[in-house]
Amino acid sequence: MECFLNRHQDHIRGVLSGFDRVVFRGTLRSISHVKGMETFLNVHHVLLKDFGSFVEAQSSLLKTHAQKFAQDHKRPYEYIVSASRSKADIAKEIMHRDGIEEGLICVLSCVELCMSYTIRRDRDSKTIHLESAPRKCLYLYFYFIDPEFGFMHVRLQSWFPFPIQVCINGREWLARDLDKAGISYQRRDNCFIEIADINKAQELADAAIKRNWLKLLNRFSDRFNPLLKSLDIRSYYWTIREGEYATDVMFKDPNYLKSIYPHLIHHAIEHFHTTDVVRYFGKYADRRFHGEVSSNTCQREEGVRVKHWVDENSIKMYDKQGQLLRIETTINNPRRFKVYRSVKRDGRDIYAWRALRKGIADIWRRVQISHKANSAYLDALAVVEHKEPAYQYLDRLAKPVYKKNRRYRGLRPIHPEEAKWFQVILNGKFLIYGFRNADLRPLIFSKPKHPKEKEQQMGKVTRFIKLMCAHGLVRKMPKTHRYRITQKGQLTMSTAMSIRNSCLSQLEKAA
Question: 351 pLDDT exceeds 80?
Answer without folding.
Answer: yes
